[in-house]
Write a structure and sequence with these properties.
heterodimer, A: eight-stranded antiparallel sheet, six-stranded antiparallel sheet, 15 helices, 33% helix, globular, B: alpha/beta, four-stranded parallel sheet, 51% helix
Amino acid sequence: MEIMEKFEIDVRRSFSNFSFHPLERRIYSHDISVLPKFVEKMACKPADVVVQPENIEDVKEILRVAEQYSKPVVPRGAATSGYGGVVPFDGGIVVDFSRMSDFEIDEDSKVLVSEPGAVWWDVQKVAREKGLSLRVYPTSALSSTVGGWIAQGGIGIGSTMFGGIRDNVEWLKVVDFRGEKRVDGNGLKYYVGMEGTTGLIVSSAVRLMELAEEIPLGIEVESIADALKILGKTKPYTAMFISSEFFRLMNEVRGADFDERDLMVAVYLNEEPKLDLRCSNVEELWRERFYPLRIKRKGPSLVSIEIVLPFEALEAFYGVARKLRVQLAIQSYFSKGEANVIALIPSDEREKRFSQDWKSAFKLLKAGLKLGGKPYATGLYLSHLSRKVIDGYDELLRFKEEIDPKNLLNPGKIFPKGKLPLMLKLAGLVI
Amino acid sequence: MSGMAKLLKDLSDEIYACAQCNYCRICPVYRIEGWESVSPRGKLYLLKLALNGSQLDAMMLKDFFKCTTCGLCENVCAVDIPLIGFWEEARNRLVRAKGPLPAHKKLAENIGIQMNIYGEERNLRDGWLPEDVEVTDSETLFFAGCTASYRVREIAESAVRIFSHFGIEFNYLGREEICCGSTLIRTGQREKAERLVERNIRVWEKNRVDTIITTCAGCYRTFALDYPKICEKRSLEFNFEVLHLSQFIEREAGKAIKEGMKAKLKGRATYHDPCHLGRHAGVYDEPRALIKAAGLELVEMEHSRENSLCCGAGGGVRAQFRDLSLEVGKLRFEEALKLDVDYLISSCPFCKMHLSHSKKVLGLERNDKPEVLDISEIVLRVLNENGM
């Protein structure tokens, strides 16, 4: 019997929820990114099977099967990121955690204990009923999962006050080929932001805060430098800087009536600060925090890059961005000492200009890197940058090789594999 | 370019616009099935694959129709894709390429022979009409629809008794009444529905109708939203005012019910917004106003108004995927159960029929709370309470 047949029989015997259907496998083999077709072809070989575990035992069984048949294991939350972190480039088992979505909220310790597939906003609804609230969450919180964001790492809403998701995880339960373990303290660095390359997150504890009244203010500033000054003077829960181009595009695609000028949106908890600057109530804009992708309608595709930049590099970066001859909307989310800058270019993947728009995006990424920034995540597509931008990369690599000697845990992500990174690097030069 | 790709080409802007953000995960069908091939974003991705030459096999085509066209996905779409209309368009293209699903084909055959979706005797269509209620040649037409004519007759009867009570003259076409075509439009068989549209329009014109009142949310949506578009396409005049019974009663007798009824109904009620009446047509307030006017305490389910959950029956799902439709119905019924209400009220015979069925599947007896009722029955009950 062929290995593949044996693998299929084993999967069918071992799990209740799986799909070998070729189109279902393709549905589960992409994320929100759309790259030029030739890059996509290089970067993705669809999953051999999609499995939906219901509990930790199922996850352990997936790893048993993966090891036995030397199949890559690609964990998947809601796939709302765009770095190829959930894209299987060498086939294997895509592990869709949507059936592991239970969570509990410990009111005394103000901690969320959650399975990986729980959705942030489902958690928030329950937390609010208990007088608590998430400290940090991604702007995709309406659908993205707890496990997904922890595995990806990063900055989001609330990061101005509470830092990134890494700063808010108390402990994790992970499963690797040796079994199940609990990780906390310094050990978290081997898992948070590691995209499942060192183990699959099966449970997590995330810190919450007391529920507070959110006061969103739109603060009219002349520049990003002014926004940073306000950030220094006041202590917002979360703050972002939205470019005039973003409002222009929103007005265009939604028939909205936003003032087309740069705006800082800062959200304060319980008490409004005294500011000399012109402020406006921006409830609507605050509700729109989950919808930065609305402007995709203009495309209908969107080319985007996210760069984490130190505060001191922001002004120079905006200068470079505004010189690009392309319609470009920018949103910057402030964290502690750095900001996640999201640059969005409405484009059309059906037309030649799509590659040109990617070229502009790469230009911006390079400018950001020169200014001391780093990509929001390296995932699959930017794994050739990992050594340069990830702190303690060599130590993480040593850990990975020890835990996963066959490189089956989400191979190609973070840690470049084979010729793919070189080819993607070349593609970056070409497009 | 493949035949399918050609058929889908003019939907390409919407297909490519999908951001794959998964905000549409709230889709009740996806919540039940758990696989993205039945989720809105998964379906859009499949269409994108089809546009680029992939073949959709029979299983994926079938999965594509696992959608009640309730429109909850449109409500949350991050890129504002008009999904309600989109799904119907896409279904139409798929049916043109591959034909309708078996149960949907049967619906069309039933209509072709008996002019109703159930294949019941056409001659029995008016069997529900009470002998003591007078039908006149009024310009106001009561359109009972297939479901209230054959399956949930108490709704049609309640409606005409309410008219009688308030002395409202109405016309009813009896055996001449034929299906509105809603089910055909929802299941991708629009060309067949268009023939019904022409026949209905001609009969209404012959009877000098100017206002059409329906108790069925599906008929209402079809007359109010689909007929004008189809008429424009086929160069027909559409000069009719279309009202749901709840709108008509609220307008004509809302005050009388609120202020004129000494005896009020007692108890707690929740209201289920039919997708076709609520999210599709924006009618939310009139049924609620009538429930309150009848004296009931109105409490809302976790999902209500524009966020309402579908009963599970629409879009041809009840016909083709009965178990799935009942699982969705159970989700909805359980929301009502959480409220400990006496009544679960809707304003659509199809919703009433399906929610009652879902109640049974949940193991509840007919007399167990909440009682599933239509808004017409509530209004009639309060009239009866007052000895009218």
